[in-house]
Amino acid sequence: MFRASTLERILLVLSDFIALTICFALAFWVQFHSGWIADKYDPTKTFDSYWGMGLVLNVAWILLFVCAGLYRSWLLNSRTHQILRVLRAVAVGIVIIIICLFGSEFLGKVFANQSLVRDYIYGSRFPWIFIYGGLAILLVASFRMFIYLFLRGLLKWGYGANNILVLGATESGRKIAESLKKTPERGQRVVGFVDERFQVMDHEFAGFPVLGKYSDLTALVKKYKVSGIIIAHDSTSPQEIMRVLVWICEIPLHIYIVPELYPVVNGQFKGNLVHGFELQELFAFTMPPWQVRVKRAIDIGFGVFLGLCSLPVCLLAAIAIKLEDWGPVFYSQERIGLYGKPFIVYKFRTMRTDAEKFGAQWATKDDPRITKVGKFLRKTRIDELPQILCVLKGDMSMVGPRPERAVFISKLREQIPFYISRLKMKPGLTGWAQVRHHYDTSIEDVQIKLQYDMYYYENMSLLLDFQILVRTVYVVLTGKGAQ
After folding, report:
1. Residue 24: burial class (beta carbons within 10 Å; 0-12, 13-18, 19+)
2. Which of 32, 90, 406, 421 is the most exposed place for a label (fewest CB within 10 A)?
3. What is the pLDDT of residues 50-81, one digit of tens each?
4. pLDDT tens digits, residue range 10-37?
5. Which residue in 193, 257, 253 sits closest to 228, CA to CA?
6. Shortest CA distance to 440 belongs to which of 410, 475, 405?
7. Which domains does the chain carry?
8. What is the model's pTM?
9. By C-alpha distance, which of 349, 6, 290 is closest to 161?
10. Are 398 and 465 in contact (CB under 8 A)?
């Protein structure tokens, strides 16, 4: 069965393309065939000569809409908000068209002190562009509204809904489940409850099956293809809420909580109000879609640039490591990435070859296992440069939390609430925690860095990434925080 969000995106792209094609054809007719613009009236012109330009414009519009986030799921969001986003995107597109068509000519007339009134206000070119823009706003927004009427109809008939689990067979959980069942157009289907009293209670509650305990969540999510979880406890302690979140933070899910419980974690994480239903979303990913794509492009571009520029430094580092003790130059290790996916990370070796003969352990201040060359490489962060390969492969980003080892994650998730939530971010070569704090040497250090990591997650943006990259240069030049 299709997912509503997948069909939504396909239909939006098709409808936008059709709407933009129609508005280009109408604008062509207004300019050359309607007679409304006297100096452009020319019935001998045919659309066949201009369809190529229209096709190029349509592709450019689709790319602009992608960057503006118009192809994320809007099914449960405000229609007014979406129309305003369309208006803003089209306005930006019209400005870009004007700059491309008239930018150099406009500036030339300004510098030549020539009149702009006749050519740009009373001339025929600007009216055509504004007519085209107005039609684009009207048709794109209208077509989208028809699509959402159609999709909501499909959801009402039971097609394409997202599967939801309710945590807590309680009165709050019953109200939520029954409300979602009565309003299928919201696109959320409750597949069952999860409750810690699973073994001692009836395996049915409010007409829905009770499927298991919190420890069964990972298996249940895979079995029922669950996309979201609602935490619905009538009365429970903050510790219980924290324990539930620890189980589900590493799973790629939407996590919702009833408003009465939100004060339990209020002030620690951002919450997004779910339109049309009284739920708060925790750990909501707030970075705009276009910034996510630009971030990946920056990762690739900056990674290639940094890799090429650092080749001489890497060569010297490799020679120095080899000359000191004739051991291996590189050190490879399995780390845990986005949503728990393991990958191999590469670094220049900075410790003796027998550094972990007694098992995995954190580096300490003035650690005797660190070699003389390794101390310099750590201080200047040169030891991290081979991780550029992980950035180019997509396992890491230039900016993000430090990738950790599975053995440490299994320990820290039990000791530090929400530590596992770091797995909702792609690890980075550098990050807010790395430039604000030194290497981990204790549980206290990990707790401090987690606060920095969560700050980064809640405020993730290209501007913050740029700030971190600039600060990384400062850290590298000064050696601040190295160990």
Report:
1. buried
2. 406
3. 788 889 989 999 999 988 878 877 666 667 88
4. 899 999 999 999 988 888 887 777 767 6
5. 253
6. 405
7. 4-156 (no CATH), 162-282 (3.40.50.720), 289-478 (no CATH)
8. 0.63
9. 6
10. yes
